[in-house]
Amino acid sequence: MNTQEFCKTFNLLDFVREHLDGHQPFTMALEDFVVTFHDVGILEFKPKAESQQYLVLSAGVHGNETAPMEIVSDMVHDLLNGKLDLRCHLLVLIGHPKAMLEENRFIDFNLNRMFNGEWKKYWERRDEICEVERAKRLEEAVKDFFSQSCANDTRTHLDLHTAIRASKYEKFAIYPYLDSREHNPAVFNVMQDCGVNTILLYHKPSTVFSYHSSHNFKADSITVELGKVKPFGENNREDFAAAEKTLRQLVEASYNFDHTTRYKANGQRLFKVKRELLRVSDDSHLNVDDGLANFSSFEKGFELLSDPEEPYIVENDGEAIVFPNNNVPIGQRMALVVEEV
Predict the structure, then answer these.
(1) Which of 80, 195, 277, 336 sits CB 3.0–4.6 Å from 322 for a disulfide?
(2) Does 334 have pLDDT greater than 80?
(3) pTM for the whole thing?
């Protein structure tokens, strides 16, 4: 293989499309780093210079969320061609190649509900649910990557998405539950520099990718919603300019991690979960339009959830709703009620 020619013409998304069923691992040594193609959509970059920063960039956990995949693909091309300097340990993940090919959110099951070992519950059904083995493979990749780091190294995981639902705040992030750890101000500042000025502080363990890396490897992890879902080739990259600039600075290790609370002075909105609304019967029903935007707010006294046994009446002006969904089975979440911190 002619390494120079391979790098010059390389497009990560095309490469993934051509190797949906996987490929044998291979490694290339370039001037400043070594890159290993571990598997389809799993690339590890190791700088030859010493670095204490370990960064995971995942995109395409949902296959129709194209903008983050385009951004990451361009960054990989620039790394391979010397247009972007690598000064950190970097793991790049295209989460769901098969769903990416079809530009569907998922194939058989929501991949972002399969992490933190949740895939084990479905292992016997792995032949009928393709996301099971993919979740296992992605977890292995993250484990192998972060296991190379030391206690004092910086571990960061940005799981990049775009949203299918409109949002009152176009760009927002979900900071996973931290168990006994404190929120890191540097994460809020990174988000603000990405153009993300709204953050939801999650309230309990979950099965999303960012919680997995946070819980198991004490990484500074976050799920980032960068805008609206659009087909490949239809994203206005200017809408993502701040995020892309910050991501590139992180890769170059030129980003200054700021542990102050400047995000507060700059108007970042933080929300916390007040209540989780569950479907408790066939009669449970959210009294909202199907297309209601995330973070839409209500006045005190509004009956947000109708149910003969467990209705929910808005208790305070300004309570807002996130992820409303009337089409869930009994026992599952219909929405989150959130309030600004």
Answers:
(1) 336
(2) yes
(3) 0.95
